[in-house]
From TrEMBL:
One of its GO terms (molecular function) is pyrimidine nucleotide-sugar transmembrane transporter activity. This is Uncharacterized protein. Residues 55-64 have a biased composition (Acidic residues). The keyword Disulfide bond does not apply. The keyword Transmembrane helix applies. It comes from Zooxanthella nutricula.
Length: 984
């Protein structure tokens, strides 16, 4: 570390510039614009750091490829630095759009970056439309178009270099040290197209190539994480998974209408060759690898470029375009000349029937060339200022824009038959991309406003992230900076570890536990571990029971209530009666007869009549959905309307708020459930529109019921089983009344449904119900000629509430699984958080769709309907995204409350940031007496709500709730979440 002072300062400045760039691109493109020292410092940030967090500017780092030392004021980077400045952009913004302008600055960096994304989407959509319009034109040599595109790109790039750099461009462009690196990348891009052509040559049709090419989103995520050591959170992984599945469903719908006129529900698998699929996937990996390596070079992270001479190492866009296009022109030109002179076919150029040289160009050929040239420049801009992942996501959005406009306008591929499904899937893809790009940034802004720093496991320190990316002569500077970090940052900075705050566990307790475990006997340690495993297995056994009981309940109920042998509503009556018996027995076991009399208090029972009515109506609509032909998976997917309905209604019933990230997940959940119902309805006929409508009404009434119950239980202090007795009494009453309602609906239908009314005759067995029906006088009538085994069937008719219950064991299995599910649900809610229950619900849908439905319905497996397969996988992912976003915000608020109430010094008292002065005074400016750390100081949801509304509720520890809730509401509102945390 013994370096001259000037070299030391220069090295520190270079590391600061590299760290600023890494904070913008190394983690997630424009995803996390957090300075590196935010990890270690929550307060006492300098004005320069606050300005850099608010006004994110691009560093001007021209490479030696710009020539020698290079002036930072010249070139496109210098101009971008001035035009991308957010503070100057607001000068031209209308007064009505200042809020949107601020949102763009926070999530995209500047308005110019946002406009560049919009321009790229439009140009890429135009390029795709030109490709589709041009089609397989046999009069044009496709290689000539590629050669002309690269030639014009080189020419335009050279003109820009001459206009901006003048004579200095000679040393910049004619730099073979940079050129040979781009030659390798151009070779990878040529290999991508060659492998794709080989896949087509092996028998894979163009439709499958188009579908497989959209796997570039998860591939780009994986390659970027490996090359740049980018760390993605659960929100990003969930968003990419939803986006990939959404674009897969969208493309499958379009492809099958392209090939079969939308008449075939199942996608054709005959044309798929396993070798061709592998080759096309390999081509996608090679292409993503090429562009990711380009990103590493253009951002100055390439070890070879870093080790080269010169102080400036970040490539400039115009030079990158010239080098890359020239190398591609060289490779494509050789193949083009060979194809045209030898008059032989090739995989890239097509058969020998293709015309040599240029062929006969048309207007659309010239338009395609123009679109490709503009696309090349904008691609390099997106790669430099954002990331390869952002570039891929933008291409997906451009593809949606092109197909959503051109297909309905030009009436392509029977768009009218898939219009509703396509228009519902497209927003889910765009919203998933938005969650990926800005979701985590929104969460972290709220965390910083609350004074909660991100965990060290999610964002490494600057020296750790720069390790291996810097040349050896700068690693010494990095070590010097690490050793002098406290001097550069000031002596007033808080500790960088923050372990106690993040983990909420005192160090002394952890060390004592470690010493105790180290002194324990090995046999005792083994027994302790075995006991922990047993407890863990017992804990998660309830989750397994929850998943299996819910899946069995849905499937068995569908089988029993759609059989036309039993009265569908009779199963709800029996379930309510069985639940009442179990709840009353449990109450007597725990509280004796006094508890049973308390549970049957008429006044208390009357208070539970309203939620009991909603509960019975929800079960009634579920039975009607099955009776109308809805499958178990379709009914469950449509019933997921429960989550967005509960979120909307809780705004007025309970006064709760949700941040925009949760709303996006709810919109995706709603649309994916609706699309699944439409696909299940229009395809194999497993469900009807009336059945899906009843399933939606069941989910809606269930959401209302849960909110009414939540509001009712705020004033109730009795145990869960006592309240369950009261709820089941009312449920049994209303389910009995709905027996008559279902019968009246069955008689009023056209044609009539006598199986819905318990006073009508019906066959006594499932075999007889398929062979004929019952007359009004109770005589059985065969549908056709009397079969030879009529005597063996011995078909008879009967009527009553529980008629037909002895026909099959499925009815009793549905009853048992319903009772078990109702009790296991309470156990899961008690032991786990809402995010675990959401994941369990998603797993239940997968078990139902992939296991029980094929097993019970004898449907083919694996599932051949690729569109419905992708959509059904999106449903649990969107629900998990909503729950995880809510869980993160809850954790941030709880940590902020604990940090504001439990500080040991003046710095810690101010560490809460947004907590305000009231919170500091509650504990004392110097962390005075009466302030206890850990979980002892906490604010309940009711106190937080009272604080948000101006109440003055104070908990037993002396923490004024008004200091917490308004601060949380301000933090959530400043990050675009409205008043999300005010009611949390």
């Amino acid at each position: 570390c013994e370096l001259p002072a000037t070299d030391h300062v220069a090295g520190i400045q270079h590391l600061q510039r590299a760290g600023s760039t890494l904070d913008q691109q190394l983690i997630l493109g424009s995803w996390r614009h957090v300075p590196a020292n935010v990890v270690h410092h929550r307060s006492h940030r300098s004005n320069r750091e606050r300005r850099s967090e608010r006004d994110i500017e691009e560093e001007s780092d021209p490479d030696e490829c710009l020539g020698g030392s290079g002036s930072s004021s010249s070139g496109m980077s210098g101009s971008d630095s001035s035009t991308d400045r957010p503070s100057s952009a607001g000068k031209w913004t209308p007064q009505c759009c200042l809020g949107f302008e601020g949102w763009l600055r926070e999530h995209m960096g500047s308005r110019n970056k946002f406009l560049s994304i919009v321009a790229f989407v439009i140009i890429d959509a135009g390029r795709r439309e030109a490709e589709e319009w041009n089609g397989p034109d046999v009069d044009v040599n496709p290689m000539s178009i590629s050669v002309v595109v690269h030639f014009l790109t080189v020419a335009v790039g050279l003109m820009l270099c001459w206009a901006i750099d003048g004579r200095a461009m000679v040393g910049t462009v004619l730099n073979f040290h940079c050129l040979w690196r781009w030659a390798w990348i151009a070779g990878l891009m040529l290999a991508q197209f060659y492998l794709q052509a080989v896949g087509v040559h092996m028998g894979l049709n163009a439709s499958w190539v188009d579908m497989l090419s959209y796997t570039n989103v998860p591939i780009a995520l994986l390659v970027s994480s490996l090359i740049f050591k980018r760390k993605y959170g659960k929100l990003e992984v969930l968003a990419v998974a939803m986006l990939t599945l959404g674009i897969g469903a969208y493309i499958v719908l379009r492809v099958r209408c392209m090939e079969k006129g939308c008449m075939e529900m199942y996608s054709s698998m005959d044309s798929k060759k396993s070798g061709g699929v592998v080759i096309v996937l390999l081509s996608t990996v090679v292409g993503i690898l090429a562009w990711t390596l380009s990103e590493r070079i253009v951002k100055g992270f390439s070890p070879g470029v870093l080790a080269s001479r010169g102080n400036h190492r970040a490539e400039v866009i115009r030079v990158m375009v010239v080098h890359l296009a020239f190398c591609q022109l060289l490779f494509q030109g050789i193949n083009w000349v060979a194809h045209s002179t030898m008059h032989k076919g090739s995989i890239l150029g097509g058969t020998s029937e293709r015309p040599p040289w240029f062929g006969f160009w048309k207007l659309r050929s010239y338009l395609m060339v123009l679109a490709y040239v503009l696309h090349m420049f904008l691609t390099c801009y997106i790669i430099k200022h954002f990331s390869t992942v952002t570039w891929v996501l933008t291409q997906v959005v451009a593809s949606l824009l092109q197909t959503s406009i051109s297909d309905p306008v030009l009436h392509r591929y029977d768009f009218s038959k898939r219009a509703m499904q396509s228009f519902m899937i497209a927003p889910t893809i765009v919203l998933s991309a938005l969650i990926f790009q800005t979701g985590r940034l929104n969460v972290e802004r709220i965390q910083r406003r609350l004074g909660v720093r991100p965990p060290r496991t999610e964002q490494a320190s600057l020296p750790e992230r720069l390790h291996g990316l810097l040349p050896s002569n700068l690693r010494r500077v990095m070590r010097c900076r690490t050793s002098d970090e406290s001097t550069l940052q000031g002596s007033s900075s808080p500790s960088s570890s923050g372990t106690d705050l993040e983990l909420n566990v005192p160090q002394g307790a952890t060390q004592a536990k470690a010493r105790k475990s180290g002194m324990a006997d090995p046999m005792a340690l083994a027994k302790s571990r075995m006991l922990d495993v047993t407890r863990l297995a017992a804990k998660y056994a309830s989750v397994i029971m929850y998943i299996l009981s819910q899946a069995c309940r849905e499937n068995f109920s569908q089988k029993a209530q759609s059989s036309q042998v039993i009265v569908p509503q009779s199963l709800n009556v029996a379930t309510a009666f069985a639940g009442l018996v179990v709840a009353a027995g449990s109450t007597w076991w725990q509280h004796g007869w006094q508890g049973v009399r308390q549970a049957c208090n008429p006044y208390k029972v009357a208070k539970f009549l309203l939620p009991a009515a909603f509960f019975a109506v929800s079960a009634f609509f579920g039975s009607m959905a099955f009776a109308m032909g809805a499958s178990a998976a379709a009914k469950d997917a449509a019933g997921r309307i429960y989550t967005p309905a509960a979120a909307l209604l809780s705004r007025w019933i309970l006064g709760k708020f949700y941040m925009w990230l949760e709303w996006l997940a709810l919109v995706i959940l709603t649309l994916s459930c609706t699309v699944f119902g439409l696909l299940d309805t229009s395809g194999s006929g497993a469900a009807s529109l009336m059945g899906i409508t009843c399933a939606l009404l069941s989910g809606l009434t269930s959401a209302i019921n849960s909110l009414v119950m939540e509001r009712l239980m705020r004033d109730e202090t009795d145990s869960y089983i006592v309240q369950s007795v009261r709820l089941n009494i009312g449920s049994l009453l209303f389910n009995g009344l709905l027996l008559f309602v279902m019968g009246w609906i069955g008689d009023a239908e056209h044609p009539p449904r006598p199986d819905l009314a318990f006073w009508n005759y019906r066959p006594m067995s499932w075999e007889c119900s398929q062979a004929g029906s019952c007359a009004a006088d109770g005589a059985f009538l065969f549908a056709g000629p009397e079969p030879s085994n009529a005597a063996e069937l011995a078909c008879a008719c009967g009527r009553g509430v529980f008629v037909g219950w002895g026909a099959s064991w499925v009815v009793y299995a549905a009853l048992a699984s319903g009772v078990v599910y109702s009790w296991v649900t309470g156990l899961v809610v008690k032991q786990f958080s809402s995010i675990y229950r959401s994941v369990a619900d998603g797993i239940m849908l997968l078990v139902l769709y992939f296991a029980l439905t094929p097993l019970m319905d004898q449907t083919p497996f694996p599932i051949q309907d690729m569109a419905k397969l992708c959509v059904v996988l999106m449903v649990p992912l969107s629900g998990t995204t909503f729950s995880y976003a809510a869980w993160e915000m809850q954790q941030a608020i709880e940590t902020a409350e604990g940090a504001g109430a439990c500080t040991g010094d003046d710095d810690g008292a101010r560490g809460g940031g947004a907590m305000g002065e009231d919170s500091s005074r509650a504990c004392g400016a110097d962390g005075g007496e009466g302030c206890e750390c850990g979980n002892d100081v906490r604010a309940t949801s009711s106190s937080a709500g009272a604080g948000a509304s101006g109440g003055a509720k104070v908990d037993s520890r002396g923490l004024d709730s008004r200091a917490v809730a308004p601060a949380a509401a301000r933090a959530a509102g400043s990050a675009g979440a409205g008043g999300a945390m005010g009611g949390a």
